[in-house]
Amino acid sequence: GAVVSQHPSWVICKSGTSVKIECRSLDFQATTMFWYRQFPKQSLMLMATSNEGSKATYEQGVEKDKFLINHASLTLSTLTVTSAHPEDSSFYICSAKGTASTDTQYFGPGTRLTVL
Amino acid sequence: RKEVEQDPGPFNVPEGATVAFNCTYSNSASQSFFWYRQDCRKEPKLLMSVYSSGNEDGRFTAQLNRASQYISLLIRDSKLSDSATYLCVVRGSARQLTFGSGTQLTVLP
């Protein structure tokens, strides 16, 4: 099946710093990428939908100025958590979908962010 | 009301047992339905799609009842390796996936 990678797999940072997470589709072109956040013992919550070459669509309650998403190519999307705080500590997972509307979403392995 | 609701669990069952998970969804316009499996600290992985006619994949059987907006997953002859969190997932007309909160299963030796 298709492969999606995320980097880094885990990161620990100080409060107030910014963290960038990369999501890459390795063997297919991803016109759409999704960013999710999962807190312990909770489900995945969609944060935003990113289409290549256009602005991301954010879900209600997700601050677009805090969670910057860039999808500049068909194989790469980045999520930058700006001025991270301890409450931003979470498991961030991206998924990527190909060009057809029926394409399956393939999930990356996730990035565990801990903000001290 | 949550868009996708699941049995809260956890389910602790002995090896070889049969276990069933239930899920309901609120949006009648939902188009596709799935069960995902998520191991601790890992990403979710697609277990199986769910069709109105019901479908089976080895020890796993999924059922969909559109009239009741209800989805189920049955696991027969459970194995230790089946221990995981099972996520009920629904895709709406906007093509986005909505995840249930998951049901934790532990299969005991």
Note down, in words, how this protein is organized.
- The complex is a heterodimer of chains A (116) and B (109).
- Chain A has strands at 4-7, 10-13, 19-25, 32-38, 45-51, 57-58, 67-73, 76-81, 90-97, 105-107, 111-115.
- Chain A is mainly beta.
- In chain A, strands 2, 4, 5, 6, 9, 10 and 11 form a seven-stranded mixed beta sheet that branches.
- In chain A, strand 4 and strand 5 (45-51) form a beta hairpin.
- In chain B, the strands form two sheets. In chain B, strands 2, 4, 5, 9, 10 and 11 form a six-stranded mixed beta sheet that branches. In chain B, strands 1-3-8-7-6 form a five-stranded antiparallel beta sheet, with no helix packed on it.
- The mean pLDDT of chain B is 92.
- Chain B has strands at residues 4-6, 11-14, 19-25, 32-38, 45-50, 55-57, 60-65, 70-75, 84-91, 97-99, 103-108.
- With 109 residues, chain B is mostly beta strands.
- The A-B interface holds A 32, 34, 36, 42-46, 49, 91, 93, 95, 97, 101, 104-105, 107-110, 112 and B 41-46, 87, 95-102.
Task: Give keywords.
heterodimer, A: mainly beta, seven-stranded mixed β-sheet, 0% helix, 52% strand, B: 109 residues, mainly beta, 11 strands
Question: In terms of topology, how is this protein built?
Answer:
The complex is a heterodimer of chains A (116) and B (109).
Chain A: E1 4-7, E2 10-13, E3 19-25, E4 32-38, E5 45-51, E6 57-58, E7 67-73, E8 76-81, E9 90-97, E10 105-107, E11 111-115
Parallel strand pairs in A: 2-11
Antiparallel strand pairs in A: 1-3, 3-8, 4-5, 4-9, 5-6, 7-8, 9-10, 9-11
Chain B: E1 4-6, E2 11-14, E3 19-25, E4 32-38, E5 45-50, E6 55-57, E7 60-65, E8 70-75, E9 84-91, E10 97-99, E11 103-108
Parallel strand pairs in B: 2-11
Antiparallel strand pairs in B: 1-3, 3-8, 4-5, 4-9, 6-7, 7-8, 9-10, 9-11
